Amino acid sequence: MGTFDYILMGIQAVFQGPALFSILGVSISVTLVMIFGGFLTGIAVGATPGLAGPVAMAIALPILISVFGYTPDALLPVMGFLIGIMKGATIGGAVPAILFNTPGTPDAFMTTLDGYPMTKRGKAKKALRVAHFASASGDTFSDIVLIICAPFLALMVEAYLDLPEKTALLILSLSFIATVIGGSAAKGLISTGLGLLAAYIGTGEDFYPRLSMGQPALSQGFPIATAVLGVLIIGAVLKELEDLWRRKRDSGTLPEHRDKGDQRLRGADVRRLLPYIGRSALIGTAIGALPGIGSTLAATLGYTVGKSRYARKKRPDAPEFGQGAAEGIAATEAANSSVSGANLIPVLSLGIPGNAAAVFLILAAESIGGFNPGPSVFRFTTDSVNPELVVAFGLFTAMMIANLLNWTVGGLFMRSMGVMIRIPKHVLLPSVLLLTLTAIYVQETRIEAIWFALGFGVLGYLMRAVAISPLPFVIAFILGGKLEENARQAFAATGGDPWFLFTNPGAAILMAMALAVIILTSRKQKDPA
Amino acid sequence: MANLPRSNLVLGLLTLAFAVLLLFVWIPMDTQTGLMEKVRRQVVIGDALAPTVAALFLILGGGLLAVVERNAENQPRMSLRGLGFTAILMTIVFVGLLVMRHAGPLSVWIVNAVQGGELEYRLLRDTAPWKYIGFFLGGTFLISGVISLVEGRVTGRTVLVAILAVVVMIFIYDVPFDDLLLPPNGDV
Amino acid sequence: MKRIFKAGIAALGAVVVATSAFAADWTPPGPIKLMIGFKAGGGADTQARLIAEELEARMGWKFIPEQVTGKGGLNLANALKGQPNDGTAIGLVVTETLGYNMAAANAGMTPDDFTGLTTTAGFQMGVVARTDKGWATFDDMIAAAKAGQDVRFGAMSPKLADLAYLLGKAQGVDFNIVNVKGGKGVMNGVNAGDLDVGFMAGIQTKGVAAGDLVNLASALSVPLVQTPEAPTFGDLGVEFSADGYFVFIGPAGMPDDARAALSNAISSVVSDDSTKAGGLIKKAFGGPAAISGDALTELLANDYASAGALLDAASE
């Protein structure tokens, strides 16, 4: 079993899995169909204001699991669907941003700046084509980086990091996520602290479930789905409903703009856009590889860098950035799309999720079993097959297939999604609320899970109300158990050395970096730029 | 509670208070093994250590917020009206879930009272139409209640939309699968 | 024919009861809640789901599987205890849950609060190291430890940690005992070099066959099927063992017809290696071990009673 054999087996696992049907004698595997289905779903939800990729993933997950069961064969179809959603939502988010000045997903906000002015000038179709081209390029680039980097990073971690260093690495990641996501280091730390606390309720090594206040309902701890879906999705729904109620549905009539002139994307356009796309893709990939920094920052940076280049290079008669420059759309979309692939580097190689999509991939892996994202996945065993590695290469294959779909039919579907804006949010959101609760219940089958999810929903709502980002909470909740387990093991393995995080040089360096991250970010915020 | 741009200070102090409570009351009283314990002649990490680390994150965050970021720009304002709206919304959700939980067993009880049967909801929880009663009534109440709250009026159209949404959900989560249970059928 | 005969025998045990209940006549009054005390996707979880699937096909019963994990099966025991005892709620745990864990946790439960249905399979619990560690036998490891090398010993339950401690004590060495979640965790730790050696309950079979891993000792009272030459814990001076089984249980006081029907149905599935469930048990756990009825009740009671001795020995 060489590396090449594993790659081949991963590809085969996608194409030759159980066949769903056959076209002209060629059987189409169920994984392929799921990737395609997820991709279309993703475009649709991305294009619907008020919905985003995570909502669709949350609702789809229990359905997918009951269709495919709790067997390792379920991993690729289920995760393929989620990857499809992730990719589809990225391009879908640009549709309402360009057509109606309403970003479909938060990271599409910068796309409105040039996209909507182009629509007003009658160049809507062209703007959509630019967005699609930039997004697909950035995404593909990022995936290639992921596929090359993740296995090497994992191998290095396995080869050089012992239990104390692994513990220190988790602490560094948490400090980084806490202080960098959202605008405020202090609020990020609070969010992280709450997430850790929630992970530690009802768990622990002793037979008494700690911090459970004697309540049997808490003795199993909070199921991961209740915390993740509660804070991320129910919290968002509650906040959006409040905002809607305040604005009293001032939606009014949708503006109509008629397309004029040439809408095609010409070779000359592509040549003009490529430098912007290239720069933004690099920025987005670099940012995505660090856990926790979202696509919004990447979009902002990509746009800013693009803007300064544009100021030097543009033709005098071309529109400025913000007035409907195609380069502005390209810079933004390439940057935010190239985050998604690279964001999976820390998940697959270290088991540390960096964004909401990665959180859902972990949730799927946890629920199905048989695949534990982390360095042990990339063990290239030679005598026997490491099934997790086959799944990993299967996932890479799924991502490339999704990219292929994106290049071929993605643009067409994307341009037909303008209608999604007509779905009234105040009808959609309560249904999403019940759907999410139902999705949690069918997986956990106990009513406490619904109460927990609502409790976490209220927490997520309050956090949003005081501008605390909920993402550190979710990531800390997922990593909390792992952190404690690693620390306990490192402590026991070193024979009870209380300074195990500092006596070993590797761990000491990582701890010093963690401290530096906290100090630097909180000082930066003292004098706002 | 914090209509002035001092919300960071208030939030920071609240967080600190909670962390202190956690550190000195909740953790010591509700964990069994302390920060460290000795078992089998080996010192190991106890169950109280990890929550203590969580509390330290809260103290660090709360402290930074109250001291360093006290005068930061863009401090959110919380509106009591917004909180009130969400409280009413949660009440509707809560009532909807109560209906969902109890409508099925209640209807079995009524049928027994009328026909004198010996039916038991627990044994019928996987049998149509019984298994849908709670989810249908509770879900319809929940969705139409929340829509009406946002719209500020109740219309027949809203109820129809809610019914449609709940029926779609039944077709998504229950009809195609034998081993999935809609709420509340796993508990009864 | 044989099944009906066996069921008849089981029912005869309850002749005191006025109704002559025959297990073959019993059908569950509603869907059966099947609680699984193991993480989704692992061997134990798959076993439970496959058994349920086969029973649905054979008997026409309806199962609703549900994960109730954590605290060494005690969470499941707690949840199951309060369920109706008419055969509509059962759970899969390990005998350790009702033995050592219940005794150690002081959770206010004893095996008397449950009805044992049947065991399905035992563990092939070995003390396993990576081959390239250079330890060909158990003695090599002890020699290394005596030469001053720290030995990290992975254990996936408190009982096993106690056993590892007693093993070290009997051999005159101190292991650094590391608690790890699940057999998969031990295997990953050993493979990554984070652990030197650890308990594995059957998951090591493939690796040992491929030559990557080596069974240094059997933690059972009998030799391992795969490596019969490895010494047992008894040979190594430990008077306790990790003998244990997967076991289906129900709440206390389950009527005899229900108990007999459920245990017969389950044991006939696990003993038939042409079924998916039986095949898995043969492959992963070294073959079926179906103990039921009074023998099982006695086994559970003994495990619980003798747990105190192990606890005492390990706290000296």
Break the fold down into its secondary structure elements and pairings.
The complex is a heterotrimer of chains A (529), B (188) and C (316).
Chain A: H1 3-15, E1 19-23, E2 26-29, H2 30-47, H3 53-68, H4 75-92, H5 94-100, H6 109-120, H7 124-160, H8 163-180, H9 185-200, H10 224-247, H11 267-289, H12 295-313, H13 326-342, H14 344-350, H15 356-368, H16 387-415, H17 425-444, H18 447-465, H19 471-493, H20 500-503, H21 505-526
Antiparallel strand pairs in A: 1-2
Helix pairs in contact in A: 1-16, 2-4, 2-16, 3-4, 3-15, 3-17, 4-13, 4-15, 4-16, 5-6, 5-7, 6-7, 6-13, 7-11, 7-13, 7-14, 7-16, 8-9, 8-19, 8-21, 9-19, 10-17, 10-18, 10-19, 11-12, 11-13, 12-13, 17-18
Chain B: H1 7-30, E1 36-39, E2 42-45, H2 49-67, H3 80-115, H4 121-124, H5 130-151, H6 156-173
Antiparallel strand pairs in B: 1-2
Chain C: H1 2-12, E1 32-36, H2 43-59, E2 63-67, H3 74-81, E3 89-94, H4 95-105, E4 114-122, E5 126-130, H5 138-146, E6 152-155, H6 158-171, E7 176-179, H7 182-192, E8 197-200, H8 205-210, E9 213-218, E10 245-251, H9 256-270, H10 276-285, H11 293-314
Keywords:
heterotrimer; A: 529 residues; two-stranded antiparallel ribbon; 71% helix; B: 188 residues; mainly alpha; two-stranded antiparallel sheet; 6 helices
